[in-house]
Amino acid sequence: MAQDYPADEVRPRRRGRKLLIGLVVLLLVVAGLLVVADRVAVGVAEREIAKRVSQEVTKQGAQSAAPEVRVGGTPFLTQVLDGRYERITIKLRDVQASVEGDAVRLPVLDVDARNVRASLDTLRTGQGDVVADTVNGTGTISYDSLAALLDRPGLTLGEQGGKLAVTAPVDVLGQKFTVSGTADVTVGKNGAVALRFNNLDAAGLPNLPLARAVLNNYAKGISIDVPLPDLPFQLAVREVRPLPEGLAVTADAKDVPINSVS
Predict the structure, then answer these.
(1) Residue 177 located in a structural domain
(2) 143, 230, 233, 253 — which has fewest CB within 10 A?
(3) Which chain regions cross the lipid bilayer (predicted)?
(4) How many structural domains compose the chain?
């Protein structure tokens, strides 16, 4: 048998339920507005940092496509108030600079800045420093650019078994041979990329000292130190590795001004 409740007892329960629902809806609306505001603030900061990165690249005599900047860490607004950001990633495409008259091209340079310090006033006015505790950069030198520096007709470079591989036509004792082999790749003086071709051979090459001497001289001629352009953000090259897409360059730096504007 259904139990009847007094009307004055039912109404408070219904009003209480409606009040609770209204409060939940209000909280959801406020949370949504905060999320929107947070994302808008991220966009403003990313555009400001991208502008500063472009200035830094130009200042060092290099060129690149417009930087792609992403600010990590959530929520963003608390980072703004604190003036410290967990992570900022920057992607530079088609980075080029003149090195002793030759163009060295990095199709992509990825920069990962950690623990970045930038005051709210700096972002608001565009005046002041944006400084990162650590910056790591990874870029790629295209094999075409590298082959152009070696300046040997028909020479091609690539990756083979984790090594830098070369193939080139060579004239030995009046005959054409296809020379192939690999090189040791290390970081040389002043951050240059050191190429040392020590293991070249050619199918059908005559077993004569003069023929071997020609091959050795060719190997010495293409064993050079490739100077790199000054990388942005004071990045110093630490490692170079041959990959299928090119020579991968790894660099790092500490206490780096992403850009200083006074």
Answers:
(1) yes
(2) 230
(3) 19-37
(4) 1
Which contacts (CB < 8 Å, 24+ apart) does range 46-55 have?
46/70, 46/71, 48/123, 48/126, 49/88, 49/90, 49/130, 49/258, 50/90, 52/130, 52/258, 52/259, 52/261, 53/90, 53/92, 53/232, 53/258, 53/259, 55/259, 55/261
The conformation of residue 62, written as its DSSP 8-state character, comes to -
Q: CB neighbours (10 Å) of residue 240?
A: 23
Residue pair 211/173 in contact by the 8 Å Cβ criterion: yes
What is the residue-wise DSSP string for 196-236?
EEEEEEETT--S-HHHHHHHHHHHHHT--EEPPPPPGGG-E
Is residue 155 one of the residues assigned to a domain?
Answer: yes
Is residue 137 domain-resident?
A: no
φ and ψ at residue 261, rounded to 5 degrees:
-125, 125
Output the pLDDT for position 261: 38
Residues of the chain predicted below pLDDT 70: 1-42, 44-45, 60-61, 73-74, 76-77, 81, 97-104, 120, 123-126, 258-262
Task: Identify the sign of the CA torsion 246, 66, 57, 49.
Answer: negative
CB atoms within 10 A of CB 25: 10
CB 159, CB 244: distance < 8 Å: yes
For tokens 């505790």, name the residue: 133
Whether 65 maps to a domain, the answer reads no
> From CA 183, how far away is CA 186, in angstroms rounded?
10
Strands lying side by side in the sheet with 193-202: 156-160, 163-172, 175-187, 193-202, 225-226
Q: What pLDDT sits at residue 33?
A: 43
Which amino acid appears at position 35 of this protein? Answer: V
Q: Which domain does 210 fall in, by range?
A: 144-226
**Cβ pair 129, 260 in contact under 8 A:** yes
Structure tokens at 55: 């200035």
